[in-house]
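Assemble and predict.
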Amino acid sequence: MFREPRFLREGRGLAYMFLGLLLFGPTLGLLAIFIAYLAGAEGAPSWPLYPGLVGLAITFCLFFDWQQSWWATVASHYHLTGGLSRIDGTKSLARAAQRHIERGHTANDIWRFVAALSDSGRDDRRRTLQDYGYGKFVQNIKAEPVKSDKWGSLYRIELWDDEPLTVIEVVEPKTGEHYFHRVPPLTRTPKHAVAWMWEIWAKQFAPMNLHK
Amino acid sequence: MKKVKIPDLSGEHYWQGDLLFIRRAVMPLDATAYKREEGERFVIAVGEASGHAHVVEEDMAEAIEELERIANNPLNNPPMMGNIDSDNTWSYRVGVEIRDQGLRVRSFRNSAPVTVKHEEHPPITLPPGAWDIRRQREYEPTEQTRQRQVED
């Protein structure tokens, strides 16, 4: 089970820089130390030694961070499932995901947890999320809408190793009830999402009894 | 002087829960007149999950002149036109996939405003015209068609 370090989860831009550092850090570090050794052999000052040591230190830190978060995940899963490493069905997975939410973990943590426990692959994870309920999921992790207008609020939650979860929240104006529906992942605006649900072009869509 | 609110009845789409009513210019060619029994409610769709139905109440159903009822129409039987399922609902084919919208009625025409009621949703008033009925869909990656019908 591979668990990427924390920086890789939070942003992509810095992630690749650190990944490059992780790959080339030891090489450059050892090269710098070798240059320092050669320079030292001729009696020059030893300052080229320090970048090499810094490179090695960063590499060690990255590796340590990855190891730590990996073990933290394992411990967390063990704790949340009550010592079980495999779970019998998607219902109990959903219950365990609920425990994750109660502990204030993020969407990606929960998704990762589901990924770790369901060995049959992506479909199992999707079914787990479906059983749990998209609306409940979006509400419980306190997701922020990517766009809101008079048609509703559109949420997009990035999921590790799967297409993003895009959900439209519609509020019925008379009753004030909230409805959550999943829409295709690349949907950009609430209006497009609502029009997609009815198989109608967004330009054409203009219901009279809502939002008027 | 009493103020009278005049409803705007120029809408093209009317939304009630998982159904959308779409105005169409004329009735479909294969539509048949449906004789309503005495005291029979005009049921448009029934949700499988809760059993709640979209219905037009009795007094309002008087205004419905002509509507298409699936079971009464022999033209719906050929596969090009769509199929009647065993539960008396309409399904049709889009490309290679078969959509079962779970509707009792595909379209209808009314000469006076009618009110559509539902147990969970507020009633809507449809102005006179011909109407298509469409069921809401939801994106679902576990399905082979990657979508499923929303059931109230």
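Confidence is low (pLDDT under 50) at residues 82-88 of chain A.
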